[in-house]
Amino acid sequence: MKYNQPYGVSDPKAPYINGNPATGQQGSIPPAASIEYPQREIVNLIADANLAVPDNGDLHQLAKAVQSQLLISDDDAGTSNAYQVTMTPAPTAYFKYMTVICKIGNTNTGASVLNVNALGPKPIRHPADNSELSAGELKQGELAPVVWTAPRWI
């Protein structure tokens, strides 16, 4: 989402100003996008977390969706050593410090990879020495938080 400057102003960084009827100062005219787009972003985040249906009766849904960690977590749908998760919204690329919490579907038997939204399988390594995982380090049913540090997960 980008900043939507006041209507009729060409400066893309122009601030909004308050009007003052006592002095005849006109206030900024907000374009529809300045109201609609932030609302849509918030509703989409709440819906993407799939924690609740967006509702005006609960004005803490955004905070609850962020707290839930549901935007960065998923159950593994892959096989032993080839883990796979699908994030919502779908990332278009791996990015610096991308974090994924994966509930492991099958205990690993050795070196392992993680594939997020079919972006390509990438190795999961130990952060201290970049070594491959040994058998049994990822256990079925347990949570595995990993962070992307190109070209691997740690």
Describe the structure.
By secondary structure, the chain is an alpha/beta fold. Helices cover 17% and strands 19% of the residues. It is built from 2 helices and 7 strands, in the order H-H-E-E-E-E-E-E-E. The chain has a 4-stranded mixed β-sheet, with no helix packed on it. A 3-stranded mixed β-sheet has the order 2-4-5, with no helix packed on it. A hairpin with a 2-residue loop joins strand 6 and strand 7. The protein is elongated, with a radius of gyration of 22 Å.
Question: What is the approximate shape?
Answer: elongated
Helix content bin: 10-25%
Number of strands: 7
Mean pLDDT score, rounded? 96
Number of helices: 2
SSE pattern, N- to C-terminal: HHEEEEEEE
What's the arrangement of strands in the largest beta sheet? 1-3-6-7
Strand fraction equals: 15-25%
